[in-house]
Amino acid sequence: MKMTVRDLDVSVGERVLCHGLSLELQRGESLAILGRNGAGKSTLLTTLAGLRPIQRGSIGIDEAALAEIPPKLLAQLRGYCPQQQQDAFSASVLEIALVGRHPHMGRWAWESSHDVELAYAALEQVGMHSMADRDVHTLSGGERQRLALAALLVQAPVLYLLDEPLAHLDLNHAIAVLDMFSRHVASGQRSLVAVLHDPNLARRYFQRTLLLFDDGSWTEGNSAEVLTQENLTRLYAHPLHCLHDGMQQWFVPQTDSQTSGDIQQSGVK
Description:
Blueprint: E1 2-12, E2 15-26, E3 30-35, H1 41-48, E4 56-61, E5 64-65, H2 71-77, E6 78-81, H3 93-98, H4 113-125, H5 141-155, E7 159-163, H6 171-186, E8 191-195, H7 199-205, E9 208-212, E10 218-222, H8 223-226, H9 229-236, E11 240-244, E12 249-253
Parallel strand pairs: 3-8, 3-9, 6-7, 7-8
Antiparallel strand pairs: 1-2, 1-4, 4-5, 9-10, 11-12
């Protein structure tokens, strides 16, 4: 499976968030999206998922335009995990995980024993197997995030689209999640696009990175080439330093308050 984006414009009102974006993502590849608050990362991701209309340009999976793919088939090809999870009604952790099987079931079908096995296996991957009977409303923010990722694993799409998948996660769970999805991508059977806030994690775990600048421009390519001190200083409007530990390099913000970037509120996520 290959996702192809050609000359894509993404806008909110009169503001252009991304202009003329073109890229291809093959099965077995991963792409991180970085940008300041309000740069349009989440809006772009929902557009790539087919949840927002395309204003200009095209998005396709293999040879089919995104809008031409039937919804059920699209849900089998790509899985989208948003920033926030809404739980209007009480349900168990297992029941929430099983929602991921719906694209693979008939309209009036019930989950099979095989579906339940897949759900338990996904919960095991995110460290929640023992919580299967817990009510979703009793979960912490980090536990609820891991459950959302488990439901995505149960869905088993070819393309994962994750919007801030590390939100609410402590360090060990954040690294475990990145390691897990890296293994899925490394198998050659899946591809991954994720919105992140840490350029160091993008460089460590993602083959490619897309930087969204506040003026609608962008740059995309190999993470080692795109994630530079110059590009990141421009991206975050704050000077960054590049540190080397002999094997890897790390970007850290300059702490001089006189050179701190200003905080702008655009209202666009």
